[in-house]
Amino acid sequence: MSTHRPESRKVTTEGLRRMKKRGERIACLTAYDALMAGILDASGIDVLLVGDSAGTVVQGLDTTIQVTLDQMLYHCSMVTRAVKRALVVCDLPFMTFQVSAEEALRCAGRLFKEAGAEAVKLEGGKPFCGVVQRLTESGIPVMGHLGLTPQSIHHFGTYRVRGEDENEAQQILDDAKRLEDAGAFAIVLEKIPSDLARQVAESVEIPIIGIGAGVDVDGQILVTHDMLGLFTRFHPRFVRRYAEIAKEMGSAFEAYASDVRAGKFPSADESYD
């Protein structure tokens, strides 16, 4: 697989398909604000997902279910202001696409017109292929999401690995093909066995992005706050922490408070005559 430096040209849905054909791995992370999005974009990340994971890592919620469309509009608009290269994909939150294709089109349209999204992501397979087709026919690119789908956590009742039994594995394989046929430009596979993820990636022509799905897919995504060690409430097995920012921040805050209380901040150099 190629590991060359990413091109500076704008990443598009067609560009991602070409990356898969060339065997180039796709690097994806989440973003929820302009400051972080600008850093991620300048670092060469290919896809920035404005995820409804903002509910858990930013808003302090236990699940993503309570996240609203207005909140996604808010987060997405901040991200798109800062991004020049990466493809910005925004989650359609719970109950924005489950009611009807027309409701999904209205909500996705708002994310495009008001927040500058360049694609949307929705969770689920066969029941939502009509929605995917309606959106793509209207000019809105759609990324699918199969395996563990967090918006369905109350249905699953557990965060265990999906697709371990033969029937569910076959359903994931079938749903991936259905989503491709409906017009999806890529699919996220979350928390499924590595061998199943490899089979999915080999069975479709669109990019497969893994999160807890092994290495034999076309790209990877993590929640940025997880891989930076900022979110510490739990540590999923599939998350590699590339930093321990929460610890560094804690040390900095403690040092600041200590200096303030001891009268060491501000110094003469940090004050005005």
Question: Into which percentage range does the β-strand content fall?
Answer: 5-15%
CATH class of the largest domain: Alpha Beta
Q: How many domains make up the 3D coordinates?
A: 2
**Can you name the CATH architecture of the largest domain?**
Alpha-Beta Barrel
Secondary-structure-derived class: alpha/beta
How would you sum up the global shape?
A: globular
**pLDDT below 50 for ≥5 consecutive residues: which ranges?**
none
Describe this structure in words.
By secondary structure, this protein is of the alpha/beta class. The protein has two domains: 13-242, Phosphoenolpyruvate-binding domains (TIM Barrel), CATH 3.20.20.60; 245-273, no CATH class. It is 42% helix and 13% strand. The chain has eleven helices and eight strands. It has helices at 13-22, 34-42, 54-57, 69-82, 101-115, 129-137, 153-156, 166-182, 194-203, 224-227, 245-262; strands spanning 26-30, 47-50, 87-91, 119-121, 142-147, 186-190, 208-211, 219-222. The protein has an eight-stranded parallel beta barrel, surrounded by seven helices. Strand 6 (186-190), helix 9 (194-203) and strand 7 (208-211) form a beta-alpha-beta unit. Helix 4 runs parallel beside helix 5 and helix 8 (166-182) packs parallel to helix 9. The longest helix has 18 residues, at 245-262. The mean pLDDT is 96.
